[in-house]
Amino acid sequence: MKALFKRDRKKKQKQTSESSSYVPLELQPVPGASTDDTNQQHPRAQASKSYEDASELSEQFLGIIKEISEATDLLSPLKSACALMIKGIQTMRTVHRNKATWMELCDEVERHLQQLEVHRSELQERRGDESNSCLKALAHYFSITADVIDNVAKAGSEEDGKTLLSIKRAGMAQMEKEEFGRYREMMENAWQAYSIEVKRLIALKVKDVGDQLEEYEKADTRAMSVRNPENDDSMFRPDSMIAYGDRVDFCEEGTRVEILDAIRNWATSSGSTRQIFWLNDAAGTGKSTIAATIANEWLIDNRLAGRFFFSPNSRTTQTTKEFCRFVANDIARNQPSLADTIQDEIKSISSEQHVWFDIQLQRLIINPVGKLEGDKCIFIVVDALDNCVLNEERVGLLNSFVRHLPSVLHLKLLLTSRPVQDIADVLASSPLVHGSDLQLFNVRNSHHPDVILYVEKRLMSISLEDRAMIIARSGGLFLYAATVCRMLERSRHRTDILKIISDVGVTDKLEQRMDTLYLSVLKQALIDRDAGGMMMSVLSMIIAAYQPLSSNTISQFLPGNIYVEDFVQDLGGVLKDGHPDRPIKVLHPTFREFILSNVDRANGFLLHSAQSAAEMAYACISTLEHMLEDDLFHLIKPGQSLPRNDDIKDVDLLVHKSVNAAERYASAFWAHHVAASEASQDLLSRVITFLSRKYMNWVEFMSWRGDIGVCIEGLSRLQRVSTDQVGSGNNIQDSVIIRHAHQFIVQHQSIIIDSALQTYCMALFFTPPESPLFGGYRKRYRDRQPDIITSSIVEWEDHVVLGGHSTAIDQLIFSPDGSRLISTDLKGRLQLWDTETGGLVGRPFDDTFHGGSFDIRCTFSRTGDRFGFITWTKEVHIRYSINGEPIVQNMQFRGLCYPILSPAVTFILFVDAPSVLRRDVIYGREPQVVGVTENGFDVYQIFISPNEEMIVCVGDFPDRHDSANHAFLWKLNTFSRVASYSMTRRSSPYYVTVDVIFSPDSSRLVICHPGCTFLLCETQTGREISLFQEFASFDRIGSVLFCPHGQYFAYTHLRNSSWIILREQETGGLIATLKGHTKPIIYYSFSSDGRRLASISYDQTVRVWEVENGAPLETILRGYTGDIRVCGLSSDWGQLASTSRTNRHRVHLYSLNGGIVGHSDIEPDDITVTSKHVILGAAFVGPCIAVRSGSNRGLQLWDTTTASRIESIFPTDYVVGVAFSPDGMLIAALTESSEIWVLNSETLKILHFFTMTKVYSKDGGLFFSPNSELLAVYKSGSAHIWNLRTPNRPPVFRQFSLDTDTENDFIKLSAISSDNARVAGVDEGDKLLVWKIGSKDKASLQTTIGEYYTYISAVFSPTEKYLLAVVKLLSTISLWRVGEELQLLTDISLPESIPSRISFSSDGRYLAYGSLCWDIITAVTPLPYSGESSPPSFNSIGLHAHSFLRYEDGWIYSAFPPCRLLPIPTEFRKVDFADYWYTSGEQAIFIDRRGRPIVIDCSSMLAQARQR
């Protein structure tokens, strides 16, 4: 195409992806189309020239079609067809010129025509409607061509006077010029007709393909999608084309024969257990070409299972995240019998939250392939594994294949990579591996037949001398030869290129050889020296981009006078490809390394990564400033609630059609580029301006895209940079703005993901009013704010807060480099955190299936690249620290002794009495016996030295009936005993915990025994150095910590737990006793240099000490630290993680680098929410809501109209229940000590005081009768009802449990009838009872309804005195008639098991439970009620109006009319949310984390919903 259509930079019109249609290339007029006959020639010469004209015409035409087919894969069948015809015409011309025989040529042309017909038929089978006319024109052209050939053949046969069946003599034919002109005109007309259709088809197809490429330009696929393999469009996605190696060249015929044959022989060998062929060599030696060639061979032979080509040109192909899905889809296409199985598995995995790589491999690849029948081997090709950016992922992939391949012997793996260490470590020792000793490149070998053949075939048009020069310069390196070939094929300046290459000397060093070549590429592309800056700007964006960009996309980022496509074409030797809408790819990583290296190496073409990132950042921000706006897609409709993203049909298509590729890229990566640029003050100011004006619009757009995770990642990186800038003296407010931008998304992530437009509504409301970022936005979008009443002031911490735990956290462990933090809680949940971003890494581990765990033992490896943990059920798990992916899962061990992980987390020691065994957990090897313990010795604990050479086993000899624990010191490799120690037990049980701590250099160990023994020993000899018994006999030595660099160790003692004892490691001599804390020490740590020690105490101070002399130093954390209970320090003392007494399920992560003062979690009036800080009752007495205080036994009353606190009431004990009277005049409270307080709701004066039998219990409750005259109270085994009109008299009802078993006695009252004559309740957990109130008759009506926990609540009808509705099992409402006996009328099934309030309407016709309602005019057959409004009789109930609002999945829903209203902010979505949530009428109330009510008035939204 380049030869046909010359480019002129000065006249060229710049093309952009915003164009609505593709402008096709103009086809060049047919040479010789004129019929001018002024120049008369000899007939034979004329025939010869006519042939030359015709052949050139045909070759030109077919060349055009071939190039067009290369522009889009949709016409790929034409590519090979045209190539065949061109080959035939070129051969014909050569033979004709040499006047050789036409015999063989004509046979070849006939074969070409037959193959063209086959390809035309194939294209016809795959055609779409838009290609019909093109196919018809193509058929017509073929027909005319055949007719011309037949006529020419006939002319030849007439001349010779013989009948010929072909055109074998046509070359000698004497044809009249007019006749040939007629034939030529026929072909030209057919060609013109076809070319018109080609133009039209290409205009459509290229636009469609361009649109599709832009749509899938994001290489990071977010979720596993299910596609029918027969209609899988993933093959046309850019990341798919890269992953499947579709654009990788094949080996030239005759090259790489030895290597290819070796792979073929391995593939066909039977009975071999070597299922992995590992082809490894240096970069640029042709590994990918070999892999693509072999994969193509296996594809043709139906022996290819799947393939995956790792590449730096796509984010998808830089990770194993999508590996299994891509390979599985490929297997489904290549092995159709497995398609259904694989599709089902993909669908199953897609529905799961997260599936580990090893499980994906097994379910999507190993198991399906294992079902193939027959013994024919099939193959998976994995190319360039070293391009996977995470070492852990590479190792994980290899380990999974090594683990699972032996189970499927007919599956083999061809793997290519550079010989990087982590890959070699896994494969070098595996018996499955073959081919690792093959060498593709030998710099000492001067004969390179493969390169010679490759260059000879690719560069036939240049001289033999020049080809020899290129071969010599390549030195056998395929990358060099291929780069030169591409450069010469695409460039207009071959002579200049050849001269540049020939002037460069030859070197044996691969890097230098490629560097000189890359300089040649850059120099030849820089035709105009004044355009150097322009070319470098284009290269800068290509190199800096986080995902490949097309020429058109880059053009939108750069000034209009830079012709991007021209530079890309001239850099074709190192870039691919030049189509304006296709992502540009750097052909080999070595070019990227070269241009980013250093001044000397890049020699005038150096790119500075920070400067390139800054240019991209400015371009991205500028693009977004012009693109972003409120309600970007105009989806807000007056009078309608804001939609969720799922409500919008084809939202991905909407985003694609409305936003171009440059805008999509800018929105995803602007923050990443700012962070990578090291943010100059000017750029940072531009960022602050952007955030102040367009931040909310950006968040909305990213929600529509589904890329909120990208926002968090980018802003977290930007936040780190801004913090450093503040440390350098820059504006602190800028840092606060960026921090708030990050916190906004983290705090409200669930809302933003659910509904992009709620970004301006519920999410924005819960931001700090005084925020320098959100103050302006709150005013701008005030009309979108919901009607919320609260006195709660949103205050964001100046540190990271980590959630996700539902109970107290008991461990906080930093990785050695401080980049990861493990948190575990008492219910067996483990979470891994990224300490820089505060993001959760991988999937949390939950052991709640086993009933919870109080002992998860965690450890990071020495290098921090992996971590392991052991559950209380002795299950071992090992995961990668970088991504949380598992290496080992659910490895179960048995026995008394817990297994122990090695310090490197590579093997496990465990006991299977009497043997101690070692199991390699990384490579999946079977356990090996290390040694056998002493006869009769039971091992309870094992400890391993840091150098993994020594172990200590602790246990006892139960048959000896002695009172001693024993510890044995063994050498691990030989299991030879070094020493034994006996420790006398005092009153402790025989399985007491004994602590053994090794020094970091493994030279010393300390044995701590609860019986007061403290023993310091020499590890290699077992020699006892010091024995300490300086404290009381029943005291226990606390934690012992060795200094990482030095000769010291420290410990605390429970008797003086506010002190730290420092001793010398060599002799155990006392150095100092560190005194200063006033309460026990929680945690302490040596600094990384071993010169200081920091301690954290319950007195809420952090103290620092000089190790050498024990002198106190300046603290690293000043002031109040936040009520620390569990904590940890990173090894560099840069970060502090802690939990607080009143908020033990959240982690506060502080940065200590700037000496930041810790933030307090405690405020006056104990406003921090705890498990006791819940809504106990609500009524609209003013209106009013009662909230139980957290720790001061108080009861808080709040006015819900102003969200202001009315009063705090402080009974003598914890309040366990509260009730408002229906008339609003009274408040009653029940305490834990069985006291009942009755107060006037207006004056809050105590009116009545009652007591029950004093049983301290948190169970119990109270309620008023419908007319507010009676007060019913129940607690433990008794129940009382007082008549408040005669409070001084004994209770009108008193009932005690009949069960003599005091552990099970219980009675619960639930409802009083409207005439105050009956009360319903439950007794002893299995009976529904109805008693008469005030009657001397003790008898009651009763019936069994099930165990107590199934009984929830009951209510009497206000009109029918004795119609009773009872909720049980959270699944059924039973209607009972109360007469002389209990009569069951009907059961109503509930759709969901959600605790809710049950109510009758004021007229008794309707029954409601939560948001459900039934018409019970006929009680035997209740009918579900539906309508836009709830029954009016529910609105006249008074202070206790029933609400039809409900909470579900983080949102408030309405039943009448049925609609979704508002999301609840994430921080309020507690595990036991029912205790923090209350509804009344059209208002919803919940409690914030400070114990303050937030009232949401939904009436206006409901009114709008009813008008729709």
Provide tags for this entry.
4-stranded antiparallel β-sheet; 70 strands; alpha+beta; globular; 1508 residues; 33 helices
Mean pLDDT: 75
Please give the number of β-strands: 70
Structural class: alpha+beta
**Rg from C-alpha positions?**
41 Å
Strand content: 15-25%
As residue ranges, the low-confidence spans are 1-51, 68-76, 94-109, 156-178, 202-236, 849-853, 986-991, 1031-1036, 1155-1182, 1298-1304
Distance between the termini: 60 Å
Helix-residue proportion? 25-40%
- Give a short account of the largest sheet: 5 strands, parallel
Number of helices: 33
The outline comes out as globular
- Order of strands, main sheet, comes to 2-3-4-1-5
Summarize the structure.
It contains 33 helices and 70 strands.
